[in-house]
Amino acid sequence: MQRASSIMSGILAGSGGSMEAGASSVDGGVGFPGHSHNHTHSIVVDEIDAFPREPWRHTIGGEHAPQGTIAADLKSAPALKRFGIAKERISSLFEVSSSLLDDSVQRLSDIGDCGEDLGRLLLQTRQLLEQNRSRLKNVSEKVKSNQMKVAFFGRTSNGKSSVINAMLRDRILPSGIGHTTSCFCCVEGTPELLPYLQQAGSPHRQNVQTVQQLAHSLHNEKLESRSLVQVYWPREKCAMLRDDVVLLDSPGIDISPDLDTWIDSHCMDADVFVLVANAESTLMQTEKNFFHKLSKISSKPNIFILNNRWDASASEPEFMEEVRSQHLERNLEFLCDELHASTRTEGMDRVFFVSAKEVLHLRMVEQGKLSSVIPLADGYRGRLQEFERFERAFSECISSHAIRTKFGEPARSGFDMASHLYTSLEEFKDQITALRKQCEVNHGECRNSLVALRREAEVCRVEWSHRIQQMRSHAQDQVATAVSNELRRLWSTVEQFEAPVPFTEEDTSGYKTELCEHISMNLGQQLLTNCSQQLSQDCVAAQQEMFDRLQHVLPPSIAALSSTMFVR
Predict the structure, then answer these.
(1) Is the dihedral of CA 313, 314, 319, 325 positive or negative?
(2) Which of 163, 420, 463, 509 is most buried, judged by most C-beta within 10 A?
(3) Would you say 182 and 216 are in contact if contact means Cβ atoms under 8 Å apart?
């Protein structure tokens, strides 16, 4: 987690910005100790202990972590590429975090039945991870879709489209004499090889050449001024578009009173605003009114002023510096004193004097897209260098601002989610630890009770074996004594036999049989009477003694069942 915080902070610091105080890092890792209570709980312990002890730090700081020093990478990279580097690193962090959440959810889902209390705790933790996984996915998608956006505004025919074409080094948007751009045109890169355009809200693709019909105000089928045409230009044809830059062209701010709708619809997500002014005139109140409205909604917007068509000054070189100083002072008064958008020092790097038409022509000739070179006014190389200086200042500004604003909120959301998850998983760990300790105590008590029970059972076994042996010997003695007594009573028993003495040989056999039955009945009955009662009493007494002993040895729940062990 600390590694993730460092990476996020490094990205923002490397861009020239910083996180607010609320976006603090969370240190430490998350462990998942288990617990043991019975066999099921032991399995749960093994499953939970299989979790990485510090999974966030382990993974983000391990082999899957983004490598390199991010702040150094950002500072050493070209300005426009810093945004892409920051996006890639932050997206990588979110992907790693998402992978961690997927793994954690899966591990918790794989744990089987583990009892009511622990099962409820695991369910709550898994639901928390799943909720954060969904939030993380949304934030990650937002990061991946972020782009740097620059919006161009100015009066009709000041050359806004020409400036964009010059920056893109190709004639993409309609430009020329008179009022040309009748709606908003947004140019962004596409990985596809052929350019195309779409109207906002329509999935239908149109040939890019039709931008002349859709956006050109001279055409009968022109769109409303607040409409948006999306132009997708192959990234391989334009270096700037490869760096996630989106350029928004606008109709003249002097043709529509609905400026508030323009601002709400197209300006709220812009990182930089470029006011394209006409160097042959001065800033008009219409231009100022638009940016005054903008500054009320967006605090200290990044505004550049391009005094376009400065090549016209070459026809009057004796007044060039005087006019330039006049324009510069008025531009600085507007930026610094009226809008408070920058300091005077910063403002000096926000005002430029250029000729977009010349720059576009020179760049297209350089690329071989034009075969003939038109005559250019004196000083065109200086104006080209001024335009390049604008592009460098613009690149530094838009990159730094976009990284802070476009990634600051996702970074804070990531910090918040990480902090919340860290706290929740620490609580989960503490609960599991407490449950484990309690189970270990219970396990120890049960183990000690089992040892004591086995020792007591062995004592009982020895005592009961001895008692049974005693009962057996006593029974033998009782039977022997009873038999001896009955033998002594044998004569009297015979005397009690009253059958007549036989006189013939045949009657003797019957007489003997009757005599035996008489002796057996009297001796056997008396022997049973004398022995069985005492033996029965001895057995009952021995059973009661065993039962009483078990009551003190066995747990109450089991002792209650012990009475069924004895036959009454």
Answers:
(1) positive
(2) 163
(3) yes
Structure token digits, residue 1: 């987690």
For the CA atoms of 418, 423, 429, 434, what is the dihedral angle to 10 degrees?
A: 180
Question: Helix H segments across 489-504?
Answer: 490-495
Question: What CA–CA distance (Å, rounded) separates 237 from 516?
Answer: 132
| Inter-CA distances, 379 with 305, 315, 362, 375, 471, Å | 20, 11, 13, 12, 131
pLDDT at 11: 47
| pLDDT, position 19 | 37
Scanning the structure block, which residue is given the tokens 């975090």?
97
Which regions in the chain score pLDDT beneath 50?
Answer: 1-5, 7-8, 11-12, 16-67, 217-218
In the sheet that holds 148-153, the strands lie side by side as: 206-207, 196-199, 228-234, 184-190, 245-249, 148-153, 272-278, 303-308, 351-353
For 143-202, what is each residue's pLDDT tens digit? 888 899 999 999 988 999 999 999 999 888 877 655 567 788 899 999 998 888 888 888
pLDDT recorded at residue 472: 85
Beta carbons of 352 and 308 less than 8 angstroms apart: no
Q: To the nearest 10°, the Cα dihedral for 417, 70, 84, 387?
A: 130
Residues 6+ apart with CB under 8 A from 497: 514, 515, 518, 519
Structure token digits, residue 273: 């605003």
Q: Residue 64 in contact with residue 49, Cβ under 8 Å?
A: no
Partners of 476 in beta bridges = none
Q: At what angle do helices 356-366 and 160-168 cross, to 10 degrees?
A: 30
Q: What are phi and psi of 207, to 5 degrees?
A: -60, 140
Q: Which of 357, 356, 355, 376 is nearest to 310 (CA)?
A: 355
- Name the nearest CA neighbour of 260 among 213, 303, 293: 293
Q: Which residues contact 348 (CB under 8 A, 6 or more apart)?
A: 332
Q: Do the beta carbons of residue 128 and residue 424 sit within 8 Å?
A: yes
Q: Which amino acid is at 317?
A: P
Q: Which of 313, 301, 300, 310 is nearest to 274 (CA)?
A: 301
What pLDDT score does 219 carry?
A: 54
Full DSSP string of 434-477: HHHHHHHHHHHHHHHHHHHHHHHHHHHHHHHHHHHHHHHHHHHH
Count of helices and strands (H, E) across the chain:
18, 9
Query: What pLDDT is attached to residue 217?
Result: 42
The four Cα atoms 399, 404, 184, 180 give a dihedral, to 10 degrees, of -30
Q: For residue 46, give both structure tokens.
A: 């093994």
- pLDDT of 43: 42
What is the predicted pLDDT for the residue at 318? Answer: 92
Cβ neighbors of 382 (< 8 A, separation 6 or more) are: none
The residue assigned the tokens 């312990």 is 45
Calculate helix-pair angle for 380-488, 2-14, nearest 10 degrees: 170
